[in-house]
Amino acid sequence: MKQLVIATIIVTVFLPLWSKGESSFGDSSKRLIVMADQSVNRVAIADVDSRSIVWEWVPTASNVRREDAKWFTNISDVKPVYDNKYVLTTASAGGIALIRIADKKTVFYAYCGNGNIHSAEVLPDGNIVIAASTGGYLMLLKTDTTVYPFSGYTKKYNQPDAHNVVWDKKRQILWSASGNKLYQYEYNFNSSAPDLILKDSMELPASGCHDLFPVGGSDALWLSTSSKVWMINLQNKTVNLLSALPGIKSVSSGSGDNYPAMMIQAIDGGKHWYNDKVIDFSGRTVFQLAGLKMYKARWLVANNFSY
């Protein structure tokens, strides 16, 4: 396995003004998950213990322009960001949106092409990077919340079968896994001309990379591939097999026993890419609600690995 050469960049990080001051679901004592629900093309938050939906964002009922709502067909990823006050979401049809939970306002949204947009990440200065799987690219967007919808600076980077992006706060780099490789990008922190620089890659023990997400409370990443789930230890560069369940679309965990590692597994042997339940590594149901078509689900907990 090739060793990664990790470069550290010392920067001053400025969070956007709109990331402060709003109420947060993350302050609740309830166990909450945020999900990409394709049954009605929405982002939803559910109370795990009461098995109920407590919040939702539907593009056709939001401040997204009517003619742009089609960009959000088949919601493909959800991430709690900015102290759990916002949700970053993507859709296979090309849409990306940053949504304020407190009032459900879409503070930023854009169209990122027809390459099956699969995931997104916020960078420390507020800019956003997306991964497009069939398009085979990452795209960097210079975020501007005054232009609605967004139509500004973008830059593409070729990466076949790109499915995911994760910011690493400790190392100040961006990780992305696709095919059978884990890629490492540096960010130039140039507000006028933002750019990603591919620095290195390492070979993974399986191909068909899908979800990449921080392991709660650890310096590690969950990785789902076509037929297995792995944990990538970033300190010693080892990749360990955690589950042989196939068709895992998302993996998420928090710190402590109340937030076990949970997964969405495609039903019917992958013939359908969604499920109405979330399971743990033993196959036990963590949350289930009839009628849902969840593609990904995340615990609504602090992500100290990235932010």
Walk me through this protein's architecture:
The chain contains no helices and 24 strands. With 307 residues, it is mainly beta. The chain has a single domain (29-299), classed as 7 Propeller (Methylamine Dehydrogenase, Chain H), CATH 2.130.10. The chain has a 4-stranded antiparallel sheet, with no helix packed on it. A 4-stranded antiparallel sheet has the order 4-5-6-7, with no helix packed on it. A 4-stranded antiparallel sheet has the order 8-9-10-11, with no helix packed on it. A hairpin with a 5-residue loop joins β8 and β9. The chain is globular and about 50 Å long. The two termini are 28 Å apart.
- Write the element-wise H/E pattern from the N-terminal end onward: EEEEEEEEEEEEEEEEEEEEEEEE
Q: Termini distance? A: 28 Å
Using only C-alpha atoms, the radius of gyration works out to: 18 Å
Structural class: mainly beta
Count the strands? 24
Q: Per DSSP, what share of the residues sits in E-state strands of 2 or more residues?
A: 35-45%
Q: How helical, in percent, are the residues?
A: under 10%
* Sheet with most strands: 4 strands, antiparallel
The level 1 CATH classification is Mainly Beta
Strand order of the largest sheet: 3-2-1-24
What is the overall silhouette? globular
Average pLDDT, to the nearest integer?
90
CATH homologous superfamily (4th level) name: YVTN repeat-like/Quinoprotein amine dehydrogenase
Low-confidence stretches: 1-23
Whole-number tally of structural domains: 1
- Helical element count? 0
CATH topology tier name = Methylamine Dehydrogenase, Chain H
Which CATH architecture is right? 7 Propeller
Oligomer: single chain
